[in-house]
């Protein structure tokens, strides 16, 4: 009888542990030996120091600009979680411009969407954020991924504990 009671008491703790571990997606891109751990803000301070380095960065799309032979996606950078999803609730780490070959459809890269890229640092460009001068690191993109809401929520704990009555709409 005691063993059954103990097992019954341990069951909720086991369920919570399993839900916390969850099934978070695996990282999208494999870091290379030349990968830099610097943030876009740090690279903007000394672009020559990081020239040619590989990066895996992500953030929130600010805008898309298309040119005759390439497209540029400006992003506000955020730290990445273990699955390389941008942690948009964190503070920003500067801005950068993802340079993609050819034309990209702006509707596929909507302002406000979260995106992760892998690529090589390819210099910098002076520009403006509002009226402020800004230096944007340029990343020649090898791979990119725009996250859906479902992908952002995968592996996240949806169990909430509290006292009282509540209604949750998802």
From TrEMBL:
Superkingdom field: Bacteria
Keywords tagged on the record: Lipoprotein, Signal
PROSITE patterns recorded: PROKAR_LIPOPROTEIN (PS51257)
Signal sequence annotation: 1-26
Classification via InterPro entries: OMP_Slp
Presence of the UniProt keyword Metal-binding in the record: no
Protein name: Slp family lipoprotein
Annotated organism of origin: Rhodanobacter terrae
